[in-house]
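User: My collaborator sent over this chain with a note saying "see what the structure looks like." That's all I know about it. Can you take a look?
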Amino acid sequence: MSTDVAPNQAPAVREPAGVSRRSSTAMLVVIAVFYAIVLALLIYTIATRDAGLQMRLAGFGAGALYAICVWHSAAVRGALRTVTFFGLAASLAFVAEALGDNYGLIFGEYHYTGALGPRLLGVPILIIFTWGTIVYCGYSLVIWLTDDVASGPATGIRRVARALLVGLATGFIAAGFDLMVDPLAVSGVWREVLGADAWWWWIEGGPYLPSLESWQGGDGIPVMNFVGWTMVPLVIVAVYAVIFPGGDRPGDRRTRAVPLLVYGYLYLTILGGLIAMSWFDPGLTGVIVIGTLAMGPVFVLGVLKLLGPEGGRRTTSTSGSPGRQGPSRVAPPSSPAAR
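Assistant: Without extra context I'll predict from the sequence alone. Here is the result:
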């Protein structure tokens, strides 16, 4: 039997296998359940003015969100990249938080309370999961909204420059999230309504929202905190992107919607808490506006792209796939499909 290839026919190549639609759909169903619960309870809170209930829900589902992000990453990027990304996020975020809580470095001088559960070297374990969730969502959104700018052939300085740019953009998204979270976390409303400690406190406070009535320590939040919230994700993502400059599996709208909806859910849970707390401290209304302006544009851009003509196209980066690959034939050079 002859094995010669026809002159005008390209040899068979292997293209990356796409993300399972069933897997993406399952993730969306889980996210939808959490959205339904939080929206229903927010409506109930507003109707009954039960601020304490909504405050307790701030951060609701943090563990589940983290699990969904890991699940999504494994489906899109494969096991090795997933372990590397979340390993970097957990280790670097923990080191930064430990330096901050114990020595006042990276973010400024602050201390965690026991409100967020068990701590290691002063750092709540829950915070490490939160870092993984927000950094993963930010990174995924940056890669998607910029059409995978970190992928493609690049070596040396160019690869590092790309990784730093993607990391910086991810850091801005994370810092935007903290513009909303930090005022909620240190507010004196926790003590007033629930008789409980807030999540953490700043020793001397700072110029961001100087009129914010903190439950303990100085009022306001230091600018250094937001510098830290930008730099920590920058380092996490830059290191990861240098090691793995691309290679996501192809996905459709459902795949791309997962990190976008998780990001939106983070906003929604904090929004509910701030709405309830603003009944006792009207100054927190300004935090809602600031947080919406910081997080809203990213979410809106994501929704617009998701609903656009490119939102449903199953694409992959140009640098290869991290996972299994299935056989596929490329059209001959003379075919319009190859142009």
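A starting point for your reply to your collaborator: Residues 10-16, 316-321, 323-339 have pLDDT under 50 and may be disordered.
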